[in-house]
Design brief:
Distance between the termini: 38 Å
Largest sheet: 6 strands, mixed
Helix content: under 10%
Number of strands: 22
Shape: flat
CATH architecture of the largest domain: Roll
Oligomer: single chain
Strand content: over 45%
Mean pLDDT: 84
Number of helices: 0
Radius of gyration: 19 Å
Length: 231
């Protein structure tokens, strides 16, 4: 029977996470193959995707996100780095302090994870610390490192729930003695791992359009709920 396991393809701006065009639904029978060709979008250049562009239809719906950068940028890179703020640092919605809205600042002497670096048309380096939270590189204001600080000192956006409780409220249920990747965002890129039997703290829960539930784990990342048993 066809149309029982669709793949939803979303076209996202890596600068803002906004949709650049209507998502596309691909249908097929479970076990049959699919191939996705990135759509050309005016003023944008395709960069990468949350998953491989070729695969097989599964028994459950799947979402694949295609990421694009503005054509005016020189480059964009996926990274795993950490920022230490030396002063209060202004935050902008997009990597352009002249056109983008200032949405606040990072407090001095705090640590932040960053997974995207953009080089804009004028050669300026920018680092993403949230979906619509970018900071401009200035050696007098921030210090970059490939090595994580003490994990409990890393700050995240949209984590008001994080400070409510660090008491474990779930356990990872995977395969004995096996590790499971966690992601920077649902269907995003892996940023770490957790292992079967680990006690974890769920700090956020979302239900996507495909009725799949994702959990944000304190100090780790996002994980599909099928691998988590609440306590």
């Amino acid at each position: 029977m066809a149309n029982i396991s669709p793949v939803w393809v979303y076209y996202k701006s890596i600068a803002t996470n906004d949709d650049l065009c209507e998502p596309k639904r691909i249908d097929g029978k479970t076990g049959t193959s699919y191939d996705i060709n990135p759509t050309s979008i005016n003023d944008y250049q395709y960069i990468d995707s949350s998953e491989e562009l070729s695969g097989r239809f599964e028994s459950k719906p799947k979402t694949i996100k295609l990421y694009y950068r503005p054509q005016t940028w020189q480059a964009v890179h996926r990274i795993n780095m950490y920022i230490e703020t030396l002063t209060d640092v202004h935050i902008f919605q997009t990597p352009d302090e002249h056109l983008s809205e200032n949405v606040g600042y990072l407090n001095s002497n705090t640590f932040w994870a960053t997974h995207v670096r953009a080089i804009t048309g004028n050669g300026q380096f920018w680092y993403q610390v949230g979906y619509k939270h970018w900071i401009r590189y200035d050696a007098t204001q921030i210090k970059l490192s490939d090595v994580a600080p003490e994990i409990e000192n890393i700050n995240y956006f949209d984590d008001a729930e994080k400070n409510k409780s660090t008491q474990p409220n779930a356990v990872v249920n995977f395969l004995p003695d096996q590790f499971l990747e966690v992601y920077a965002e649902p269907y995003g890129l892996p940023i770490g791992s957790t292992s079967d039997g680990d006690f974890v703290t769920i700090i956020k829960e979302i239900h996507d359009d495909n009725e799949i539930v994702w959990y944000r784990l304190a100090n780790k990342g996002w994980i599909n709920s099928i691998y988590i048993d609440k306590l």
